[in-house]
Predict the structure of Nitrogen regulatory protein P-II.
Amino acid sequence: MAKLVTAVIKPFKLEDVKGALSALGIAGLTVSEVQGYGRQKGHTEVYRGAEYQVDFVPKVRIEVLVDDIDAAKVVDSLVAAARTGKIGDGKVWVTSVDEVIRVRTGERGLDAL
Amino acid sequence: MAKLVTAVIKPFKLEDVKGALSALGIAGLTVSEVQGYGRQKGHTEVYRGAEYQVDFVPKVRIEVLVDDIDAAKVVDSLVAAARTGKIGDGKVWVTSVDEVIRVRTGERGLDAL
Amino acid sequence: MAKLVTAVIKPFKLEDVKGALSALGIAGLTVSEVQGYGRQKGHTEVYRGAEYQVDFVPKVRIEVLVDDIDAAKVVDSLVAAARTGKIGDGKVWVTSVDEVIRVRTGERGLDAL
Ligand SMILES: Nc1ncnc2c1ncn2[C@@H]1O[C@H](COP(=O)(O)OP(=O)(O)OP(=O)(O)O)[C@@H](O)[C@H]1O
Ligand SMILES: Nc1ncnc2c1ncn2[C@@H]1O[C@H](COP(=O)(O)OP(=O)(O)OP(=O)(O)O)[C@@H](O)[C@H]1O
Ligand SMILES: Nc1ncnc2c1ncn2[C@@H]1O[C@H](COP(=O)(O)OP(=O)(O)OP(=O)(O)O)[C@@H](O)[C@H]1O
Ligand SMILES: [Mg+2]
Ligand SMILES: [Mg+2]
Ligand SMILES: [Mg+2]
């Protein structure tokens, strides 16, 4: 069935990630603004040229529902597009989805993607 | 056990969805503001009377924890309430939850809903 | 593998929860602003000294990816830190994660946490 790929990335990398997913033919995406920290909590992380001493750094959270079969290449592509090589590049995780429904048509399962 | 029903819908449909869930006796709900696109990325979608040429359209993300047994009717009811018949109506997905805890009482499982 | 612990709590309890998780050596955290209601929808709930008659009360949503083995103690500790004993203290749920990737290094699985 479908997988849900969730990614928390640097906000300025959203355009690159969108492009990478489009190139794979991914039809949809949901984005929200979040804040977070990883292993370097308490250390500085650079955001928009400013150093953040604070714990929470602004990030973008992305959710993409994909066909099970495409999950691995979506993840690889997303991770490559989001990477800068500097700390704070982000985290991606994959979960299993029991059911998907497209509201307008009522389609279910992979047809609903 | 419990299921998590997540829906990304048109913001003006939130009240209808809330009503539909209340009518089913659903006790709680979590809502956040997101942006997204579906299959018509790059085409226009109407939001508050304005046409969006942009990729990202404002949506509302809803999360509802429900008893496994109620999941199907919650989904049907939510989908019906969110539908306008126009593109961009939204996506709903269901995932399995291992454990739920009600913070105030420490109750677990279905009692925690 | 990994579990995802999601919590919707009172915003002023975020610092306590962060402290409790740090004390357990939890490396990262993602936070977003949400609104919600639980079982007392339509009744009042106090937020920043004001009584909310409205349905939606501002909450903070926390996501923590943890090693399976640590999930139970993370939940207990988070719940204890978030509790005030008053209504609206929040909900915590645990889901299973198929895969985690650390974007900068490409590490996978528990190494990625
Ligand atoms: N364990 C976690 N649980 C939930 N969210 C996390 C976790 N770790 C990181 N995040 C989220 O991902 C964002 C980016 O994390 P980050 O890339 O700093 O991870 P990291 O493991 O510290 O890797 P790096 O060493 O490359 O910085 C954080 O700001 C946070 O929002
Ligand atoms: N594959 C997806 N992954 C994650 N979120 C999605 C996905 N597809 C759609 N969404 C979210 O749902 C919202 C509404 O999607 P939308 O209803 O446009 O889907 P659609 O498949 O294009 O259906 P329609 O043809 O009726 O417009 C999007 O703005 C986005 O936030
Ligand atoms: N069934 C649910 N599904 C999704 N989110 C929920 C659900 N129930 C509660 N929440 C979220 O958790 C927040 C806090 O819920 P709350 O603590 O009021 O739950 P409760 O069961 O009413 O417990 P209490 O009696 O202690 O108030 C809500 O504002 C909402 O965001
Ligand atoms: Mg880091
Ligand atoms: Mg669409
Ligand atoms: Mg309540």
Summary: Residues A 38-40, 87-88 surround magnesium ion (ligand 4) (CB under 6 Å).
